[in-house]
Design brief:
The chain is built from ten helices and five strands. By secondary structure, it is mostly helical.
Length: 234
């Protein structure tokens, strides 16, 4: 996969705030080689880019899944070199897809800490519209698996209506795909015992999710390239 050129622009404090971790954590990951070193700019100040942020998000996701530091090091060592921020986000999506549905009740301060930024009332309203959180008597019931995605969508230059419409499209088609794939598996194992069915389901699930993510990523890239070509011809 190709690496996207970017201009690192985040200080270590800004990187930590965006990722919802401490500066000490960023430095620790750096000393262990989990996070690439920053680009040193004027006045010997280190700057980080989107790839650093995506890699840090992946590390935190692996940690939240219960992986030890040694296991995280092995996981990252197996990744192809030169992955872009988008590629790292795909890896994180695969990891996050195995997280159990977790709804936590958080106060405003903890919500903003997890989000890695201050949230306006408009931001909270948009997150609620995306079903990321539900206000609950001065606190918030938060879907932890969706929070980071929802916060990133706050900065996407699209209206809330377009984002919700896109979510509906993805939900509808993913349910259709899941239903059809489930039917194929059901037909294939109709003669098997219940234990064999559970075993096959557990074995197939990660393969199916990774295949769906990879296929969708490639299809979306092709559609966007076609869109760019059409725009250039106008």
């Amino acid at each position: 996969m190709t690496t996207h050129t970017e201009e690192p622009a985040l200080t270590i404090d800004e990187l930590a705030a965006r990722a919802g971790v401490t500066v000490r954590t960023v430095r620790f990951y750096g000393t262990r080689g989990l996070l690439p070193p920053p680009v040193i700019g004027p006045r010997r100040v280190g700057h980080y880019g989107q790839a650093h942020l995506s890699r840090l998000a992946l590390i935190e996701e692996l940690r939240h899944q219960g992986m030890t530091l040694a296991a995280i090091e092995r996981y990252l060592a197996r990744l192809p070199p030169g992955l872009s921020a988008q590629d790292l986000a795909i890896h994180r999506a695969v990891v996050a897809s195995w997280a159990p549905d977790t709804v936590e009740t958080l106060d405003r301060a903890e919500l903003e800490r997890r989000a890695g930024r201050s949230l306006t009332e408009e931001d909270v309203g948009r997150l609620a519209a995306m079903s990321v959180l539900v206000p609950d008597d001065g606190a918030y019931r938060v879907d932890s698996g969706l929070l980071r995605l929802g916060v990133r969508l706050l900065d996407v230059p699209l209206s809330q209506e377009v984002i919700l419409a896109a979510r509906n499209v993805l939900t509808e088609h993913s349910r259709t795909a899941a239903r059809e794939l489930s039917g194929l598996l059901r037909d294939a194992v109709s003669e098997r015992a219940a234990q064999d069915v559970r075993s096959l389901s557990a074995e197939m699930q990660p393969l199916v999710v990774q295949a769906l993510l990879t296929t969708f990523q490639r299809s979306l890239r092709e559609e966007l390239r076609a869109w760019v070509r059409e725009s250039a011809q106008d």
